[in-house]
Amino acid sequence: MVTDSTASLPEQEPGAAGVIVVPQRLLAGDLVADDGAPGAAADIEAAAARGARLTTARPAPARFAAAYRRAGEAGARAVVSVHVSGMLSGTVSSAALAAAAAPIPVRVIDARSIGSGLGLVVLAAVAAARAGQDLEAVASAASACASQVGSFFAVDRPDALLAGGRATAASSVDVKRAEAGEAVPRLVSRTVLRLDSGRIGIVDRVRTWSGAAASLARSAAELAAGLPAGTPADLVVDHVAAAGRADDLADRLRTGFPQARRVSVVAASSAIRVHTGPVMLGVSLAPSPAVG
Q1: Is 129 in contact with 80 (CB distance < 8 Å)?
Q2: Which of 83, 172, 219, 249 is the most buried (most CB within 10 A)?
Q3: Cα(144)–Cα(130) distance, rounded to whole angstroms?
Q4: Could you tell me if 53 and 28 are in contact, meaning their C-beta atoms sit under 8 angstroms apart?
Q5: Are the C-beta atoms of 110 and 85 separated by less than 8 Å?
Q6: Which of 25-29, 108-112, 259-263, 280-284 has the lowest mean pLDDT?
Q7: DSSP per-residue string spanning the chain
């Protein structure tokens, strides 16, 4: 299994530690660093404090080629490579270019998600692989999860997402202000968004983080209500600089979701922080894999 560093992968989940993660590139002024490299997170925060523009770049095809060679050298007979939505990043294209020349068969999957949603798609593929399924079955498991996963997240302000074209605003006024470089008004200071079919859209605006957490839990509950009766679900709460809020939300989900098989908490990567701003709280939900 191969993914990229926009995936929020709970380390305690079976098989997660064996996933090869290809880092996104972090860019801020003169800073160019691999996501997850020692000191990179601190450097990003320092750059943000200086007012530098933060952004990311997809990994070069050569980075994926090296990951696929590494997998083959470790004994893998094939690779399933699952990545951030192609609507948000060109990462899938880089992976596909490398896959065409890989020494072993590679299936590249667009997860149509990011963060904890991408993590759930990766874990669905891991579960299929651990159950002994073949390449096509593992790829199908990833694609099936990608079509069912739902992701919601809250940020202080969506300016970076709007300006970068990664989110669709609830009103044309927000879009015009973002395009003009103006700030979205702070009258309502927490924005709740949904990732749907690979695109990000604003679904709610609230005043407080407790209101944001309630909106996230409500959105996840509405999504869970659409699952067939008795279907177990896995949930992942991810966050940027909001560990306490993430733990509280996870506890709320554990008590409020009788169909929840697992609820995990994970800190999102710097590549996520670059686009969400300094604080983010999110939750993703998907039906639990049917395999062991």
Answers
A1: yes
A2: 83
A3: 17
A4: yes
A5: yes
A6: 259-263
A7: -EEETTB---TTSTTGGG-EEEPPEEEETTEEEETTSTTHHHHHHHHHHTTPPEEEEPPPHHHHHHHHHHHHHTT-S-EEEEES-TTT-SHHHHHHHHHTT-SS-EEEEE-S--BHHHHHHHHHHHHHHHTT--HHHHHHHHHHHHHH-EEEEEES--HHHHHTT-EE-SSHHHHHHHHTTPPPPSSS-EEEEEEETTEEEEEEEESSHHHHHHHHHHHHHHHHHTSPTT--EEEEEEEES-HHHHHHHHHHHHHH-TTEEEEEEEEPPHHHHHHH-S-EEEEEEEEPPS--
Kindly list the distances between the CA atom of residue 3 and the CA atoms of 42, 59, 186, 215, in Å, as whole numbers in the listed order: 23, 11, 36, 29
Cβ atoms of 249 and 192 within 8 Å: the answer is no
Mean pLDDT to the nearest integer, 145-167: 76
Q: Please report, as a single letter, which amino acid is at residue 21.
A: V
pLDDT for the residue 177: 45
Above pLDDT 70, what percent of the chain? Answer: 89
Residues β-bridged to residue 280: 155, 240
Structure tokens at 248: 């509280």
**What pLDDT shows up at residue 158?**
60
Tell how strand 167-168 and strand 199-206 pair up. Answer: parallel
- Mean pLDDT for all residues in the chain: 89
Q: What is the reported pLDDT for 170?
A: 44
In one-letter notation, the amino acid at residue 264 is S
Backbone angles phi, psi at 51, to 5 degrees: 90, 15
pTM across the whole model: 0.89
pLDDT over 90 at 247, yes or no: yes
